[in-house]
Design brief:
Blueprint lengths: L2 H7 L11 H5 L10 E5 L5 E6 L7 E8 L5 E5 L13 H9 L5 E2 L4 E3 L7 E6 L2 E6 L6 E2 L4 H7 L10 E6 L5 E6 L2 E6 L7 E2 L9 E3 L4 H7 L5 E3 L6 E3 L1 E3 L18
Parallel strand pairs: 3-5
Antiparallel strand pairs: 1-2, 2-3, 3-4, 6-7, 7-8, 8-9, 10-11, 11-12, 12-13, 14-17, 15-16
């Protein structure tokens, strides 16, 4: 092989590519979308993870890959119109911002590894929560969120507080969540009404069961309550912001202060 031919082999050749300005500006960047929230099933036979169907969007679905065969199947797709940016409340948007969360659709899920049988999966979507028995069970809604409004005689559904920080206990018997600044738990039998564990925070500057701003933004801690492995006890954080003054932020180019 001559010196010239060897050099030509490694000389860059300019080629036309289909990449457009739209490709460069969009998220995720071309080639930068990858599965995340990767977890093993309780029996270690399957890996579950979140990913977009086309590998090019921010909309996530839940998938399972059989370790032995490599076969991948879809476990859960969010109902149409749920888990979208336009449907998030201000509190949900702020939590997403602190977690640097850009994805929509299914953004989290959890295995209850201590549950009986094949395990149990919690899938929060939008303002609802779903559970599934193992990989082959039916995805079922835990309860109708309207039940919270009825029990609290609260605001109309259009302005109802969101369900925040839904998490399943280690034994899979209950799911905890925060609604209207109070901590609740509900059985995973999909037939029970949520039970309120705390009092006194609704309508105030207190929060029960939510991580405070500093913990979320500076310490990467987003949990504000912890359920014992046997679901018999629950420790929670109470945050009192009554002594924190409001700080108005000037927005450049706007006549409003927010």
């Amino acid at each position: 092989m001559s010196a010239n031919s060897h050099q030509d082999r490694y000389t860059p050749v300019r080629e036309e590519t289909p990449i457009t300005y739209r490709d460069i500006a969009k998220f995720p960047r071309p080639g930068c979308s990858a599965p995340d929230s990767i977890a093993f099933s309780p029996d270690d036979s399957v890996i579950t993870y979140l990913a977009s169907a086309d590998g090019e969007s921010l909309f996530r679905q839940l998938y399972a890959m059989d370790i032995e065969s490599g076969q991948v199947r879809e476990l859960c797709t969010p109902p149409t119109g749920t888990g979208e940016e336009d449907n998030f409340s201000l509190e949900q948007k702020l939590r997403r911002e602190r977690a640097r969360q850009l994805h929509t659709g299914i953004t989290s899920y959890a295995w209850a590894e201590g549950a009986d049988g094949t395990g149990k999966i919690l899938v929060p979507v939008g303002n609802e929560m779903f559970v599934q028995e193992g990989l082959d069970g039916t995805l079922r809604r835990l309860f109708d969120p309207a039940a919270l409004l009825s029990a609290a005689n609260g605001p109309k559904e259009a302005s109802a507080p969101p369900i925040l920080d839904a998490r399943i206990s280690g034994d899979g018997k209950v799911v905890g969540f925060v609604w209207d600044r109070e901590l609740y738990v509900v059985s995973t039998d999909c037939q029970s009404t949520p039970v309120k564990l705390t009092e006194g925070a609704a309508g105030s500057e207190l929060t029960n069961g939510l991580a405070d701003y500093i913990a979320q933004e500076e310490m990467d801690r987003y949990e504000g309550y912890w359920i014992s492995p046997d679901s018999s006890l629950c420790a929670f954080e109470q945050v009192d912001e009554r002594m924190v003054p409001a700080y108005r932020i000037m927005h450049l180019g706007s006549d409003r202060v927010g």
